[in-house]
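Weekly puzzle thread! Below is a chain. First person to post its structure in token form gets bragging rights.
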Amino acid sequence: MRVKVCGMTQLDQVRKLDEMGLDFAGFIFYSKSPSMQEKYQRRTVEKMKLKMGKVGVFVNATYDEVMKHVDDYGLDMIQLHGDETTKLCDQLANYITVIKYSASETMTH
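Winning reply:
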């Protein structure tokens, strides 16, 4: 089993989870979420030397928006929770591992 804790908003949270040996930290990039990742932390998050992976969580973001956050935050994986098309998922999967959630299934590209 692999464990991801989502909604990281403070760098100390991320460091503590990494020290605990968790597999992934989730960063929310959905403006309607109270856990939306603060932009001022992006370079710090990108440069953090972590053993765990960094996962960006998106809802109905465009290809360009997702890829900008992948680059800005040094994300290792993305998780999609909106109405993203198979075409968009495939495009993103050419560059990064994609987890796509839908009401009926979960896919990993």
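Puzzle host: Confirmed. Bonus trivia for everyone else. The first helix runs from residue 11 to 20.
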